[in-house]
UniProtKB/TrEMBL annotation:
Pfam families linked to this entry: AbiJ_NTD3, DUF559
Coiled coil location: none
Record InterPro entries: AbiJ-NTD3, DUF559
Protein name: DUF559 domain-containing protein
Domain AbiJ-NTD3, chain residue ranges per copy: 98-264
Species: Glycomyces luteolus
Domain DUF559: from-to ranges: 365-442
Amino acid sequence: MVDTVEHAELRALIRPIVLGLKDYYRHKDLPEACQRLGLPTPAQDGTKAERLEASLDALPDAGLGSVIVGLLGQEILSASQRRALEDILRAQQGTVEVPQRVRREIARALDLDDLTQHSGRFMDVLTWFWLPDEDFFSLLAVQTLPGLRADVERHVLRNPGDWSAEDLFEQLGAFAAPHPRFVRFMEALVSADLVPDELIQRRLVAAIDPCLRAAGVEVRETGISEGYPVFALVPSGLPRSRRPKNLIFASKEKPDLRFRNAVDNDIEVVGNQDHVLVYDRPIGSGGVRWRDLQDWWQQTRDVTDAEEAKRGLYQRLCESLPDNSPGQHNLFVLYHRIFGAAVPELPALLPEVWLHWDPKTVKQRGREALLRFRMDFLLLLPHGQRVVLEVDGSQHFTDKAKYAADMRADRELKLSGYEVFRFGHEELKRESRAEKVLQEFFMELFGRFDVTPYGQ
């Protein structure tokens, strides 16, 4: 937790950003904007700036972190503001530390040719972490514009060999940067977002990993995204036997989830461990099919017969469905009835999902972005496509607070790349009607996402 001095510094940092919202919202829209950011409802009277300032002043210190996360989802931030907020947020979450000497050794070990295979991607990474805000002249692409961006393009891209990686790091300010930003920069350099070539990814890892080990840090492969390995910088003492917990699901009661280590997706289920399932296999570009889920169940439960494993898994998932929601029960049962023998190759319909560990989500919105959401059902489709299905009872519409919470959850999920579809409980509670509704829905859904339900 941050101390009082840091709280004061945080408020001073975000105050001009919050006050700047007055230029983007009308008076009547301020309450909704504040709610979305996690700020208290603003007063009715005063100018927009006065109302926003009073809202920030009324925010408890404990709520500053949530407001920072909300602000990072806004498009109004300058590059420098976004970096400052991200540095603070990552520092609070915890990070490994890389001393300046080790940073220089890493720079000397890197080959810029590996990093600049795709010049546009390379400049995007530098823009995200280091380059100053673009001004009017750079937007006009004036080639003679002095400044860091022009220097990088000249000495790294147009005249390879002018600068070494060490020269580049020096000019960027990477050697003196806060630890969280340098760590994320290193992870970006070995990511497929920069280098969509696994051989080059692993060559870069092989270059920097020996340097990091002197600081008690290593590059760890933590999963797969879009078919490429995902790497993270973690303490070298972390056990290798522990697999990433990619999915926590199938529990009627909310499990107590905690991060054992803030720089790795090492998640501990503290409470209700016996009532939750934890899928700990890497999720590749094909998503999670029922066959994948059944194979995992069969191996982890030491079941020798595939049919027995299928029945046991199906029954276990049915047991996780809430007793007071026939609509959810019908959705799950009818999905398997409608598609029958085709189900093993279809996306698994995962009920009562409490956590989906997604490298994209973590990168965009922070490691705890989805911890506060429970999804009625989650489908992980091929090519990183993610679909959430919710079954809403009448209280979701008659209870204003519940309705507002649902709408906020939808926004957060959609901003994190999830498609959200809601069903009214009334249309699913009778099996005969529900089957027709669901068959039409899933056929359209699979058509949209290019999933072949009958293996054509």
